[in-house]
């Protein structure tokens, strides 16, 4: 698969091990395996964190924006590696650099999650990520993902970006 494609929630559930209330990707708007992903998180007032963060002024916690970006990056990693996650194949979020938060994310926002794969070296995937609302950057970070090396099959087998199986 080399052309951009989309994914609905059913397809996302096959590619991510996360489930409610921790699944933070609602739809993949565009994915180009080995390159990039654009996904959507619809932020609604009934999110489980809003009653306590903050009463009277609901704001999506920054760590959950980062987690939503990491989940979008995880979908890209699984699709690129052509792997469906199970108890023997997982990617872990292993690093973050230069995280910046520019404005709050509130109920009613459509959070667009973008990740671009910049490097894959020895199984460590480096990605540039950006979250936007209405075209305005709300968060950006450089992230690293890696296969679970403790799993029985020593993680997932991945190939460098741009190579064919």
Structural commentary:
Helix content is 16%, strand content 37%. It has helices at 9-15, 62-81; strands at 5-7, 27-32, 36-42, 91-101, 110-121, 124-133, 136-147. It has a single domain (5-147), classed as Thiol Ester Dehydrase, Chain A, CATH 3.10.129. With 165 residues, it is an alpha+beta fold. A seven-stranded antiparallel beta sheet has the order 1-2-3-5-6-7-4. The longest helix is centred in the middle third of the chain and has 20 residues, at 62-81.
Helix/strand layout:
Layout (H helix, E strand, L loop, with lengths): L4 E3 L1 H7 L11 E6 L3 E7 L19 H20 L9 E11 L8 E12 L2 E10 L2 E12 L18
SSE topology string = EHEEHEEEE
Major sheet details: 7 strands, antiparallel
Binned, the helix content reads: 10-25%
Q: Taking strands numbered 1, 2, ... along the chain, how are they ordered across the largest sheet?
A: 1-2-3-5-6-7-4
State mean pLDDT (0 to 100 scale): 89
Q: Which blocks of ≥5 consecutive residues have pLDDT under 50?
A: 154-165
